[in-house]
# Entry
Amino acid sequence: MKGLTEKQRNILDFIEDFMEVNMMAPTVYEIAEHFGIKTSTVFAHVRSLQKKNYLTRSSKARSISLKHPHRKNRRPAGLRCVPLFNSPEEAGSSKGKDTEIYYDSAVLKNAGDLRKLFAVKIGSEMGDLGMLDGDIAILKRAPETLRNGDIVLVKIGGVPQMRSCHEIEPGIMEFISGDREKIVLHSDGQRFPVEGVVVGLQRNL
# Structure
């Protein structure tokens, strides 16, 4: 990538990574958010990349297209992979980071940024929550909102556990485990200690 500044190379790499994972181009706002810069700065870099013949872009949303992709997609068509952890406890550590699982990206088309997904193997204690021993739950990290009935990975006493969450009243959530144990947590104006929310499930048949 001759003739590019370091920032332009980083933006080009981010665009290609984003397109490979999400199967669509990032918006200018997503690029700006990732690098912590103003959208006007991103527009300037994108225009420079257009002039240098590295990409094209129209006025439509997600219209960025790479003219000379320098990587080949090594994943089967329609499939994406996410980090797989052997248990909820491992999901809170660096263990399992080199293990991946493939999933059908079409199933999770409404999951948002697919780079925030990870997977956890389920044990026998989750039957009451609709998950069986050996199932693999796919979660979205750091969800912005929680809904009644969401199954989440939440830290209880510093230990990650899978629980079903229910809002008792604004700012107060009840987290129920597979054995029906209940824990009530107050947000106190802060985010609940939720590591991720389940957005998909692969059943071990």
